[in-house]
Design a protein that fits this description.
Distance between the termini: 77 Å
Structural class: mainly alpha
Largest sheet: none
Oligomer: single chain
């Protein structure tokens, strides 16, 4: 064999090895999913707490690919460009939190107590997406995703939809509007008894939470961010007050408005319908409001960091030039 042909063959083999490893990992993910489905269907009593109670292929695929692509992206990122450790930790905690409330036995509990259902929605609409957005994993995920997925995400339809739903006013309306929609008693009852609508409800909560918090917690100034820091700070307050009002209305109601939980049987018989609703209303009211306050503080901190960076760049530019303008440091 000629040396040139041997070298070409060697390069081809080296290029094929990572592809085989990648396909092997995807096959392993699929095999694990099949095993978890079989266990959750036929051996539920033997499943640990973290394992699926009612296995959902879509949630499983979303969680495992989000973890795998992020880990793969981290491995491909040069050490100097890797995100801070706390960002990586927040990302995985956010995914784990959503998984716990949607795929473990907690989901069964949330279907039998209204206040646990409210905890579930706070986690999958507020806490989980909040932590994922705060991790700002876009660059890392981009390095880990396969090319066809990147082409799809960068396509005009996807970018158009993203630009529309992240318009500040519409984002705020969707964020609170979906909460109010699924809390409307007749719609809530229907969603809890209809598996398809129940899935739509849960997916809408998670996806909308990701869109909203990625808009608000974008550490960059505008542009390239969709909205300025002032608008994002305003959004945190706009979505807080409707949640306070909704939570207080539920907490102070004096009759049972969420009859589904009496119909299916409450997990804790000692907790009556009114108490259950009061606890649920307080969860809609207090934790959601606290998340908005925390987001406001973070946005203000991002503004401070952006201004300090701008001032530093201006100072460095002034030091290199022959003239320093007083307005840049006096504000006049």
């Amino acid at each position: 064999m000629r040396p040139a042909m041997a070298e070409t063959l060697s390069i081809s083999i080296e290029q094929a090895q990572p592809a085989r490893r990648t396909y092997g990992l995807y096959a392993g993910i699929a095999a694990l999913g099949a095993f978890l489905w079989w266990m959750s269907t036929y051996r539920m009593a033997a499943m640990p707490f973290w394992a699926p109670w009612d296995f959902s292929p879509l949630w499983y695929i979303a969680a495992t690919l989000a973890i795998y692509w992020h880990a793969r992206g981290l491995a491909r990122t040069p050490p100097a460009e890797r995100p801070a450790l706390w960002r990586t930790v927040f990302y995985y905690i956010g995914i784990a939190a959503i998984w716990i409330v949607l795929q473990t036995r907690f989901e069964y509990m949330a279907q039998h107590m209204f206040f646990l259902n409210r905890i579930q929605h706070v986690v999958m609409h507020h806490l989980g997406p909040f932590l994922i957005a705060l991790a700002w994993p876009g660059a890392t995920l981009t390095r880990g995703m396969p090319e066809p997925v990147l082409v799809f995400l960068r396509s005009r339809p996807v970018r158009t939809v993203t630009a529309i739903v992240q318009q500040p006013f519409l984002a705020a309306v969707l964020f609170f509007g979906l909460i109010a929609l699924w809390l409307t008693p007749p719609i809530h009852f229907r969603a809890m008894i209809d598996p398809t609508l129940y899935s739509v409800m849960n997916w809408s909560m998670v996806v909308d939470g990701l869109f909203f918090w990625c808009l608000v917690l974008d550490p960059r100034p505008a542009p390239p961010a969709f909205a300025s820091f002032a608008i994002r700070a305003t959004l945190t307050m706009l979505v807080m007050f409707p949640q306070i009002i909704t939570g207080s209305l539920i907490a102070f109601v004096e009759h049972d408005i969420y009859t589904f939980y009496d119909w299916c049987g409450r997990l804790y018989p000692s907790v009556g319908a009114i108490d259950d609703q009061q606890y649920g209303g307080l969860i809609v009211w207090i934790p959601s409001s606290m998340m908005s306050v925390i987001a406001l503080i973070i946005v203000i901190n991002f503004l401070r960091q952006a201004e300090e960076k701008q001032w530093k760049e201006e100072d460095e530019g002034d030091a290199m030039g022959p003239v320093i303008s007083s307005w840049q440091w006096t504000g006049r």
